[in-house]
Amino acid sequence: MTSKILLLAFFTLFSNLAIASEQTTIRLGVLASGTLTWELAAMQHQNLLENAGFKLETVDIANQQAGKVALQAGSVDMIVSDWIWVSGMRAQGSDYTFYPYSASAGGLLVPADSGIKTLADLRGKKLGIAGGELDKNWSLLQALGLQQGLDLNKSLEKVYAAPPLLNQQLSSRRIDALLTYWQFAARLEAQGYRQLMSGEDIIRQLGVSETVPSLGYVFRQSWADRHKAALQAFLKSAQKAKDTLCDSDAAWQQIANLTETSDTAIQAQLRSRYCLGHVKQWGATEQEAAGRIYQLLHQLSDNKLTGKTAQLQPGTFWSAP
């Protein structure tokens, strides 16, 4: 009997050791030119992926829409996307959830010598919009215009195109102003263009003082429940990489080539805007503020951005039990 007990104990210990040695593989969808590549490179340089408790497998994705398709198809476990999409998917019965990645939200820019000083000055002008008709910043800018008695959708000419093309059109004066993503806004700022207001400024002028992330890690709740320790380890490593990129000039120089420019002024502005986007506080107050932003967006664009659901869905934002 004793030998059988010892044998059973041995096999139990062996099984537990085998399970412990199996690391969760996190398949992460990554845009080739996104800032996530900066953090992944920093994680490598800082040896944050060694003995981390998980294995990281990166999967190249062409754009955000391709990332959403990959996540839905199960070919990746996690992507960087927005919480409005997550809420919409939850309204359809999916269990996607969101954890903050960045609060950087783009900006409205004009040439340094432009006479455009306020939203009212955009009347009759040509505005480039990087995110398309349903871009969140464009919707919020419209809401701010209506608050000021200005229907921007009817009072100016809109030009939708890819961000690099719109940057070129602004530099050649084919458009008068540009509403674009923060990375492209930072490049223009470094070249002397004036930011009329940032995405964060738009939100504050609409009455929301809290910092609300624009993008975050998106994954299935059921996947997170099964791999909570690995997910938390990854998020901790990613946060450490971010902090180091902002605090250490040496760490930044190791990944500076990934900014796709050798211009040190542009690199410095990209770093500055990237670091300003860090989400330092994330709790009930900020999540409630996100709900208020959602309701503002729901009132615009005939609900095309938010769908028919008037409220942000429960579970949109992930918190570890």
UniProtKB/TrEMBL annotation:
The record, for Gene3D superfamilies, names: Periplasmic binding protein-like II
InterPro entries to which the protein is assigned, alphabetical = SsuA/THI5
The protein's UniProt keywords, in alphabetical order, are:
Signal
Residues in the signal sequence: 1-20
The answer on whether this UniProt entry bears the keyword Repeat reads no
SsuA/THI5-like domain boundaries: 49-244
The organism's place on the tree of life at top rank: Bacteria
Q: What is this protein called?
A: ABC transporter substrate-binding protein
Q: What is the lineage of its organism?
A: Bacteria, Pseudomonadati, Pseudomonadota, Gammaproteobacteria, Methylococcales
